[in-house]
Specification:
heterodimer, A: 407 residues, alpha/beta, Spore Coat Polysaccharide Biosynthesis Protein SpsA, Chain A, 2 domains, 8-stranded mixed sheet, B: 568 residues, TIM Barrel, Oligo-1,6-glucosidase, domain 2, Immunoglobulin-like, 3 domains, 8-stranded parallel β-barrel, 6-stranded antiparallel sheet, 17 helices, 17% strand, disordered N terminus
Chain lengths: 407, 568
């Protein structure tokens, strides 16, 4: 991936402006007037010199500093070569924002979803202050916990990231987070993998953890509309899990030395979604799993060892109501798929595609388990799963180092 | 054919880390022996390009190419007649540039040979010199004498074929100096024009993007009466000039010294980090074999004790076998006799002062021994260098002349010509290995690729494991001294990484008590299977190793249970 370059006019403006305290980058197009108004209100007293950037080519922004020390800047939205790749688009925009902050020599960079839900005084304060005060290199959001929201994150992204990199970060891939200057620069670099044509996702917490940076979380009452409604599940899994697996391959020398995990400081009070969520019918998901176990057995056998296959066969024979996917088994499945992704013995698309029925099986199991649970109980259930990923990590390291040895 | 001028666009080095060679795994190969794309019986660059993924999958990070330049091939290409071109049998300069580009795209670095102690007697420089009058600039490119009595203290290297380092040239009516074969006259580095020409050659290849140069026969560049004509200060001045030219014009490049000398004599080739970045550790290699045969660690610990510190940015190059004989120049007479008895039962296995055999036959094709020696190669301080074919346990052919028995075609499959070429078998540059044990039908990449327990897959895993730990390429070494001398135990440490390596040099089970004081409380984690061993406590740490067994144990700090840590 090529280094990020900005238009000459923007470059000139950066040079003339000199260093700033904070760059807030909206990762997409935004209504300039709404942005200006909301930013002015939200930023009162947060940082002396702030740039609010948004994706676009319009020159609607004024180079003049407002009374609050805020200036608006448009940056070109990067083109993603992969069509219909929602998360890759987000990552490309985030990388541009971080690069812009680095160019502006900003002390902190806040990337933000373009629904502007995070552009509220309390949220900005929680996300940016630890960085601006020098207490943290990265502040990740802790969105309110909902039982049925963000299941790919709960089941895979968060527990795998935590087990690998040893930091208990709830949302390792997020729409809104704040990075200090050095973390921002590293994140831009982390995306410039030589020989890689597509833009990789950004895993800020993992990257900062590898480099020994200080990570914290901010419990923010921010809700983004469901992002994946119109997207194919396999496509989303391919984007998200594939990216995390790729990152694991790149950083194998780092995470294999990490044992256990550490809690990270959380600013603000962690909240729970007010709505417990509608009851979910697990049957179609379990049936997808059973269908997958019939149709994909040949692929699964190339990925998972006999002991796991045996357990999956046993699960496939259960009634829907009895269907429960044990945490340790699920963790080992994910580790096996991460390894298969690395080994490249078959197409990565096939590997990730074959994971979809298994994921649906996990969802079917989880939704039944937490169906009658409170949100707090469901939260504890997710924590239990994360611990299982940690406990099974030696299995992953062992298989990574000697892939042929599995039973 | 593309001309050299057309290709002379200065390209950047492919590595990102200036010390890339410290973490590298080298893979040495001869273009002619690797893969034949045009079915003329000789390997070529297009064939090599087809096989680059194999090298990537193996885990090697730098390809070392043996000489591929135009040559009469009387010394397998080390007799060069044109430094700035490619031997037509292997392709063209354009093919080489394509190979280089593809290798870089795959994340591989490339090292080529800079053979400038001597040229072929067919090189235009020598032809001009022998016809030029004495004292003329052309004549002065080589070392001439009216007598063969100068430099009498210089030893003869190719003792099997050469009786003197001087040969008479009937055209020049003078003797010319050659440290190797008589058809390889030595260049005269006392003539500044020679160095100028050599620097042109060096820049030619670095401009193309070559990452590293192996300086062949580097101790012999300059001669002086009253000396053995090896390792002279004037030779070091030449190397410094080459290094200065590299540092001035290029980044992230490397030069490696081939100096078959005792470690103390090799040390000056690193200079103050202003000569070579790397040098081979020649004396270690025979002593590894000796230690294995004697089931005694002493030969290894002894030579390592004689190995001086080198500058931080420098590195030893380690190998078990290469394209030459297993050289015994750096051992004592008794040790040499022992090695001949232990490793070359048939006199045909010997050549010059060494043994011309590949790794697997040297070790009686014993998988445990092969794995043990590779474990030492991968865990000793230095950069490991693999010789093509040894990763699958290829055999040799002692009935071929010179060192050709270890330079046979790569065995890719059980197909005709071992999958190396589709040509008529009679046309191959060398017969493939065909015996019952090492023949291509038994030993080949295709078969081992499909076998999870094959040596090839074992090598892939070991290389991948080594690459996870910088300590192997960059860390310090400290030997432990357990009472049982059949056990070799050493600690590698780097930036908080601590690895304990323990190897059983014996054919039978061995117990050992290790003094790990200072490491109490740490947990040894066996690195291949990621298995926790008992925590290190007070007193000796007991271990038991099977025949030729080895353990790599990462010493990890126990994790405090962070589960109770509160978020604020």
């Amino acid at each position: 991936m090529a280094a990020i370059e900005f238009p000459e006019a923007l470059q000139k403006r950066i040079e003339e402006s000199g260093p700033v305290d904070l760059v807030i980058g909206v990762t997409g197009p935004a209504d300039v007037e709404e942005l200006r108004a909301k930013a002015t209100a939200a930023l009162k007293g947060i940082a002396a010199k702030t740039v609010v950037a948004y994706a676009g080519t319009a020159e609607a922004e004024s180079a003049d500093a407002s009374a609050e020390g805020i200036q608006l800047a448009a940056y070109p939205m990067p083109e993603n070569p992969v069509s219909l790749a929602f998360w890759l688009d987000v990552a490309a925009a985030q990388r541009s924002v971080l690069a812009l902050a680095a160019a502006w020599q900003a002390r902190a960079c806040l990337v933000m979803h373009n629904d502007l839900a995070a552009l509220e005084p309390a949220v900005l304060r929680l996300l940016t202050e630890p960085v601006l005060d020098g207490k943290s290199d990265l502040v990740m959001p802790q969105y309110p916990f909902g039982k049925y929201e963000g299941l790919i994150n709960k089941s895979l992204l968060a527990p795998l990231s935590r087990a690998l990199y040893g930091k208990r970060v709830r949302f390792p891939v997020a729409f809104d987070y704040c990075a200090g200057a050095s973390a921002a620069a590293r994140l831009v670099e982390s995306g410039t993998v030589s020989g890689q044509s597509e833009t990789p996702l950004l895993w800020p917490a993992n990257e900062v953890a590898i480099n020994g940076g200080r990570i914290s979380q901010a419990a923010v009452d921010v809700h983004h509309a469901a992002q994946t409604d119109d997207l194919d599940l396999s496509q989303v899994l391919t984007e998200l899990a594939g990216s995390l697996f790729q990152e694991a391959e790149t950083n194998a020398a780092c995470w294999q030395r990490v044992r256990g995990s550490q809690a990270v400081v959380c600013y603000g009070s962690a909240g729970f979604a007010k709505n417990d969520g509608e009851p979910v019918d697990a049957r179609p998901m379990v049936e997808s799993f059973v269908l997958g176990s019939r149709n994909l057995e040949e692929v699964w056998r190339l990925v998972m060892p006999p002991a796991t296959m045996l357990e999956l066969r046993r699960l496939a024979r259960l009634e829907v109501e009895q269907f429960r996917l044990p945490d340790a088994l699920w963790a080992r499945i994910i580790y096996d798929f991460a390894l298969a992704h690395r080994m490249r013995r078959m197409s990565r698309t096939h590997v990730l595609g074959a994971m979809t029925p298994l994921y649906l099986g996990w969802v079917g199991s989880y939704t039944q388990e937490v169906g009658s649970a409170t949100v707090e109980e469901a939260d504890r259930r997710v924590e239990q799963l994360a611990r299982a990923f940690e406990e099974q990590k030696p299995y992953f390291v062992s298989r990574w180092r000697w892939p042929e040895r599995a039973n | 054919m593309a001309t050299g001028e057309a290709l002379r666009v200065k390209r950047a080095g492919s590595a990102t880390d200036p010390l890339w060679y410290k973490d590298a795994v080298f893979y040495e190969l001869h273009v002619k022996a690797f893969c034949d794309s045009n079915n003329d019986g000789i390997g070529d660059f297009q064939g090599l390009i087809q096989k680059l993924n194999y090298i990537v999958d193996l885990g090697a990070t730098c390809i070392w190419l043996l000489p591929f330049f135009p040559s009469p091939l009387r010394d397998d290409g080390y007799d060069i007649s044109d430094y700035m071109s490619v031997h037509p049998s292997y392709g063209t300069l354009k093919d080489f540039q394509q190979f280089l580009n593809v290798a870089h795209e795959r994340g591989l670095q490339v090292m080529i040979e800079l053979v400038v102690n001597h040229t072929s007697d067919q090189h235009p420089w020598f032809q001009a010199a022998r016809h030029a009058p004495p004292g003329s600039p052309e004549r002065d490119f080589y070392v001439w004498s009216d007598t063969d009595q100068r430099y009498k203290d210089a030893r003869i290297i190719f003792t099997d074929t050469e009786k003197s380092n001087w040969s008479w040239d009937p055209v020049a009516h003078a003797y010319y100096w050659h440290r190797f074969f008589s058809h390889q006259p030595d260049l005269n580095f006392d003539n500044p024009r020679v160095l100028e020409e050599v620097l042109k050659v060096l820049r030619f290849w670095l401009d193309m993007g070559v990452d590293a140069l192996r300086l062949d026969a580097v101790p012999y560049l300059v001669e002086r009466d009253g000396t053995n004509c090896e390792n002279l200060a004037e030779t070091h001045a030449v190397i410094k000039a080459m290094r200065a030219a590299i540092d001035e014009g290029y980044t992230r490049r490397m030069i490696l010294a081939e100096a078959n000398q005792p470690p103390a004599n090799v040390r000056p080739y690193f200079g103050d980090a202003d000569e070579c970045h790397m040098a081979f550790h020649f004396p270690l290699m025979p002593r590894i074999y000796m230690a294995l045969s004697q089931e005694d660690r002493l030969p290894i610990t002894d030579i390592m004790a004689q190995t001086p510190e080198i500058p931080e940015s420098c590195q030893w190059g380690l190998f078990l076998r290469n394209h030459d004989e297993l050289t015994l120049e750096m051992v004592t007479g008794d040790e040499r006799d022992y090695m001949y008895l232990a490793y070359s039962g048939d006199p045909r296995m010997r050549i010059n002062v060494g043994i011309r055999r590949r790794l697997a036959p040297l070790l009686d094709n014993n998988r445990g021994r092969i794995e043990l020696l590779n474990s030492l190669l991968f865990s000793f301080p230095g950069t490991p260098i693999l010789y093509y074919g040894d990763e699958i346990g290829m055999g040799d052919n002692i009935y071929l002349g010179d060192r050709n028995g270890v330079r046979t075609p790569m065995q890719w499959s059980g197909d005709r010509n071992a999958g190396f070429s589709r040509s008529n078998p009679a046309r191959l540059y060398s017969p493939v290995i065909m015996d019952a044990i090492y023949g291509y039908e038994a030993i080949n990449v295709e078969a081992q690729d499909a076998d999870p327990s094959s040596l090839l897959n074992w090598m892939r895993n070991m290389i991948a494991l080594r690459k996870l730990f910088k300590v192997f390429g960059r860390g310090t070494l400290r030997f432990l001294e357990p009472a049982n001398r059949k056990i070799l135990a050493y600690l590698r440490e780097y930036n908080g990484e601590q690895v304990l390596c323990v190897a059983n040099l014996s054919r039978v089970w061995q117990p050992v008590q290790l003094d790990l004081s200072g490491f109490e409380g740490l947990i040894p984690v066996e690195m291949l299977g990621y298995v926790e061993f008992p925590v290190i406590g007070e007193g000796y740490y007991p271990l038991t190793l099977g025949p030729y067994g080895f353990l790599w144990l990462e010493l990890q700090t126990p994790t405090a249970d962070a589960g109770d840590e509160q978020e604020s």
